[in-house]
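Model it.
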Amino acid sequence: MIIVAALAATLTARAASEEGMTYRFDSDGTCTLLKADCAGDVVLPATVEHESRQYVLTTIGVGAFADSRVVTLSLPETIAEIGEDAFRRCIALEKVTVPTLEAWTRISFANEYASPLNGMRPLYIGDSPLTALEIPEGVPELKPYAFYDCSSLVTADLHGVSSVPPHCFDGCEGLRGIALDPGTTAVGEWAFSICTSLGEIRLPDSVAEVGQGAFYGCSSLKNVELPAALAYIPALGFAGCVSLEHLDFLPSSIQGVGDYAFYFCTGLERASFPEATKYFGQFLFRDCESLREVKIPAEDAQLDEFMFANCYRLESVGLPQEIEALPQGLFFECQSLKDVVLPLSVREIGPYAFGDCHSLPFLALPDGLLHIGECALYGCYALTRVDFPPSMESIAAEAFYQCPRLDQIHVRSAVPFNISFFSFDWRADREAHVFVPAASLQLYLDDKYGWGCFDNIEGLEEYNADTWLSVSWGGTEVGRPVEYGAEIQLCVLREDGSLPAKVTFNGAELAVSPDGYVTTPPVTGKSLLAVE
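Modeled.
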């Protein structure tokens, strides 16, 4: 046993070196342990004598015990600071002891490897392992990494502490219960990360901020209570919480949810957000393999890339009604997705937005859609038909690649829009039936490096762009384009509420309902509705 204690021995600089200890002595009467080349059981001194002067040991330097074979370590109550990587790769270390809990809470750790507890070691206060933490009087705050990887800790009563600092209980896999002070204002980054035994967490209403990854990897966490006024769920906040089944615990105040916030929550089955939630991070639900239902009520919500990637059981999602662009990879590998309604506001479908959505049989593209990105519907094996609105401007490479059942492609643009030579795969080029406006058929056939690559192109009269309805009423004539074959219903009451004398459609008289409505026959060309 190596005992380096001032009361047990008088150490000179040479003697310390011979025992494997190298110190730096400072003019203020303190010293730093620079290197501990030792093994077995080590007791560090409170003071070290050098050149007939006593120095207080306050600091363990950068990498001081790195790669050492120390088995047990006793620290004096004088230690105030431990440098970066001081205990990195101390694979033989089994036990850490300090004389008092107050002494331990005063230590500042530079990073996770500055703590001798890293690697899941127990902390002993005197002769007893620390299992139930109660903050001593006079300790108003804890330090980052204070109980990082503490394997002995089971419960933590944090009354008297105003905030939980970053990484404070990170890696405490045996921690089962936490009681926060009612006045707690913040929970820092990774504060309770990898607390795999923690079953519930209740944050008081005083908490205004929760840091990134605060509950990352809390695999037993089922019951969550968040402050009523909390505005933001941080990035990776609940990632890896595989026991969560729903998000009913989100308060109505939540405005945004950070990147990867619920990543790999494999037990999550449904998710609903309050109307105030408008900002959703990338990879938000990635690998939530049990997720089936998501509700996003805010019409102007902003979604981010790969938000639902690898949600294999997700069948339907209601998208925000004002969304203009589907982000890259939004539903990537959502293999059960069957029902998606694209809002009329959508102008662009991003790359891989529906990539490998194997079960998607049909996707209604809204009027006003302009662009479809690279591989947007790549690998949609069940897709049999696609209808492009007249507004389309471009389709990128491989947008419909590996869609082996795609049999019908309907195009309503009078002028062929841009597609890549590889927008569709060879099966579609050879076997799919492409329907275009009859008046534009030759234009499509002449598009040698685009639409002209298809073997089966047919012109349809109903897709011609000259379906137009004019209405003549009291000497005024107005008109608008209408969909081919549409039956238009109009109210033809006069300003005084009386019925018109006669209403005709292309010269044929129409019946007027008692409440003043007429319905035209199908509009198949330029037509005139006359109200007399």
